[in-house]
Structures are given as C-alpha cells and as structure tokens.
Amino acid sequence: MDYGERIAKLEAVVESHKEQLNRIEQELVRLRVRTDEGFAALHGEMVTSLRWQIRLTITLFIAVVGMFMAVLGMLAKLGGVL
Q: Distances in Å between the alpha carbon of 36 and those of 14, 32, 40, 74, 77?
C-alpha cells in the first residue's frame, strides 16, 4: 500500500467521523431543547403546587385558630378560664 491510498482511506474515515459528529451535535441540540421545555413545564407545575400548599397552610392555620377561639368561648361560658 502506498501513501496515497492510506491518505485517501484516512480522509474517508475522517469525513465519516465529521458527519457522525455533526449528527450527534444536532441530536444534542434537539435533546437540549426538549429538556429545556420539560424543565419549563415542570417549573410551572411546581409554582402551581407551591401556591396550593400556601393556600392550604393558611386555611389550616385559620381553621386551627377558629377552633381554638371556639374552645375558649365554650370554656368562658362554662364558668371560665378567662
């Protein structure tokens, strides 16, 4: 085998690797876009969930305070603590 054939084969291999790398880069870009979209959707769901958690916490706190006040009112009527 002379050097011309070796160089030609090597150039063909290099060209093939370049094409494969370009395809991999394109797939990585597509994957990155899909991942970013997925994280954006997940972030939106997390914000909604956090809002619900805050609302439920406030509601529970108000309910507990209301029950406490009701118990204090009943105790005061019974001859009382206050």
A: 33, 6, 6, 57, 61
Question: Nearest 5°: phi and psi at 46?
Answer: -65, -40
pLDDT surpassing 60 at residue 80: no
Q: Report the pLDDT averaged over residues 11-29.
A: 95
Q: What's the pTM value of the predicted model, to 2 decimals?
A: 0.56
Place of tokens 């009943």: 74
- Give yes or no for a contact between 41 and 47, defined as CB atoms under 8 angstroms apart: no
C-beta of residue 76 within 8 angstroms of C-beta of residue 68 = no
Nearest partner of 69 among 57, 56, 81, judged by Cα: 81
pLDDT at 34: 95
Mean pLDDT of the chain: 91
What number of residues does the chain have?
Answer: 82
φ, ψ at 51 (rounded to 5°): -60, -45
